[in-house]
Amino acid sequence: MRSVPARIPRPDYAASGVPSDRGARAVRTPDEIEAMRVAGRVAAEALVEVGRHVRPGITTDELDAIGHQAMVDVGAYPSTLNYRGYPKSLCSSVNEVICHGIPDSRRLQDGDIVNLDVTAYIEGVHGDTSATFLVGDVDEHSARLVQVTRAAMHAGIDVVRPGARVHEIGRAIESVALPEGYSIVREFIGHGIGDQFHTSLQIPHYHDPRHDTVLVPGMTFTIEPMVNLGSAALEMWDDDWTVVTRDLQRSAQFEHTVLVTDDGHELLTVPAVGPPAEERFAGIRLGTEPVASGD
Ligand code: MF3
Ligand code: CO
Ligand code: CO
Question: DSSP states of 20-42 as a string?
């Protein structure tokens, strides 16, 4: 594991690997919301920084080092580091990997798609965001999957407002992804987030009316649909982390952390300046064109 300077405050699991369950408050205090804006901004800016380096030939471990440094440089702890024993500072999920891929010495290849998922802990709370990037010259089917997955995430985000029910989010995501013939992963879902990385609030990305919790101002949670070209069936590698499609067809994912406001929602995982990675790099074949720095 990469080291984090001792001066940087750590989440409760940093040493043991085991998060403590301090009870599930779904609604954040005003001070926590201010802190969540900071954590969300830090995660979003780290994701832009790693996104700028995506190109054929770079290893996912090199991207991990870049994300780690971007967080540590601003005084944040990379939340994934030793979370339930996870060994790296971000997740990198290439092609048929659905989620929780572990950065390693594999070089990204021309035509790959890669989801990079960054979570930052700072001011006592977490911000969690991810995007799927196109490596070089990606085939049209994969590029379409990525574009539709991003649109599906936004359809889910757009229904977030006080009075809406949780299941409306999954219904909106389905309405974008299913007509394309894609499938939506069921085993991994969005989650409440705050002083804990994952709280008990569950946000499925498929429609299930039993999830009838009413959204109220101050709730913070992620929306992070995983959408597959083929079937939704999955398998876990024997590293106990890497989740892949059983049919080995590709999977894409995007994630934001959102706040329920008095009149709608606020995206928390946005940079201080410029658009978030999911927008900045949307549809861009990275490593084939002039660097998409966006600023
Ligand atoms: N960031 C992931 C999520 O969206 C969780 C990664 S947990 C890890 O919830 F342990 F795999 F890093
Ligand atoms: Co998440
Ligand atoms: Co995440």
Answer: -------B--HHHHHHHHHHHHH
